[in-house]
Each structure stands twice: as C-alpha cells, then as structure tokens.
Amino acid sequence: MFGVPPVASLSDVAPLLAAVGRSFHARGWAFATAGNFSAVLTREPLVIAISRSGVDKGRISASDFLEVDDKGVVVGGDGTPSAETVVHLAVVGERGAGAVLHTHSIWNTLVSEAAGAEGGVALEGYEMLKGLAGVTTHEHREWVPIIENTQDYEEMIRDVKAVLGLNPQAHALLLRGHGLYTWGRDLEEAQRHVEVLEFLLEVEGRLYASSGKLKAKAAGAAEGGRDGDR
Ligand SMILES: [Zn+2]
After folding, report:
1. Which domains does the chain have, with CATH numbers?
2. Separation of 36 CA from ligand 1 center, angstroms?
3. How much is the average pLDDT of 151-173?
4. Which of 50, 54, 68, 106 is 20 to 30 A away from residue 83, measured at CA?
C-alpha cells in the first residue's frame, strides 16, 4: 500500500506519508509535533518530500508536506521544512534510502537515554529482527548507534554521517533522549523498520526496567546527582 516508485510526485507521496504519520501518532510514536517523515521523489536532481515544521502528527495531512532539494531549500509547497531535514538528507545521501522516518516514542526515548553512555544498543536473538531488510535469522545482532542530542544541526549532521560510516550495516540510529531514525529503500520498508525497531526497543526497555537500568537513572536524577554525560 505504501510503496513509492523511484520517481514520484508530491501529490502521489504526500497522502501516503501523512497516513504513516497519523498511524504513528495513533501508536504513540509521534505525539504532538514530534517526529518527521520523508520520501525521495527524484534522485537526479535530488528532491524529497518532507513534513513541514510544527504540524501536530495526529492531524497531519497531504498539504503538510513540502518538496526540498539536496541543500534543504524548499522547491515546492508552502511553509518551513522540519528543522531535522538535514538529518533526512544525510541518511538519503549516505544510505541511498528512498524514505526516512523519525519517531519520538516513550521507549526509544528511555532506551536511548539509558544506553547513551554505551554509544548504542545491541538487539540480538529476537525473531522480530527478521523484519529488517536483509536479516534472515533471529541470531542477527543489530547494533543501533546512539548519538548525543544537540540543537546544533551542523554538529548533528557530522555525528550522523560519522556513525553511518562506522556502522555500514545499521538499519537505524538513535538520538539520545530524543528519538529514532530509520529508513528503507521505499516507504513501505521504512515503515516496517519503525514497527520492528519500536517493538524491539520496547522489549529492551522493559528488560532495562526490570533489571534496574532505567531505575538507576531515575534515582540519580531525583537525587540531583552528577551526570557528566548530558
Ligand atoms: Zn526529533
């Protein structure tokens, strides 16, 4: 249903992206204005469709998407593109992705914070991993790198490109205390990756909670303890 051909128009793709956005809101993965969604329209020259800034994802519609070029300049539609457009463009450039999706779920926020000092989270041994492109066995080990969050988008882009270069097999990355980025060759695959990763990060987060890994963080914060990592 959500497949996007290699060359597509904004009017074709925007309703599909909007439906994905509303479904993520309904699942609790993109509340309020959080999250952003994009798909490649043309590769040469590169033009992507991306959600505009400040849209409530429960109400996002086809008119909330813009066309931007490889520099992030709006070339179609009205409004300001998401501040994180640069991350979408970096993933498209580095991975050749056809679609990039970004969610702010409770579990991806908790896990990215709790595992942030380790630089990533390993997802291993789960049948659900087979939903990731190219993965054929539950014995796969998926390393999801975690990048420190920042409002300095130039720094963020440097970090995103570096981590993608260091982890050529990765299907996703996390911004610490912020959210998940994943992608796919098309919108259907990217959406599947969100579902797989949100499932696995919730599994991991519940394990963290039962082992005290989340509790330890909360206790430190409640005591006003030192936290040099943030
Ligand atoms: Zn975000």
Report:
1. 10-220 (3.40.225.10)
2. 7
3. 95
4. 106
pLDDT tens across 28-54, in order?
A: 999 999 999 999 999 999 999 999 999
CA of 175 to the centre of ligand 1 (A): 8
Q: Select from 11, 4, 25 the least CA-distant residue to 66.
A: 11
Peptide bond into 145 cis (omega under 30): no
Q: What is the pLDDT of residue 215?
A: 62
pLDDT score of 212: 86
The band of 229, judged by pLDDT with boundaries at 50, 70 and 90, is very low
Quote the pTM value. Answer: 0.91
The rounded Å distance from CA 86 to ligand 1 centre is 12
Q: How far is the CA of 44 from the centre of ligand 1 (A)?
A: 27
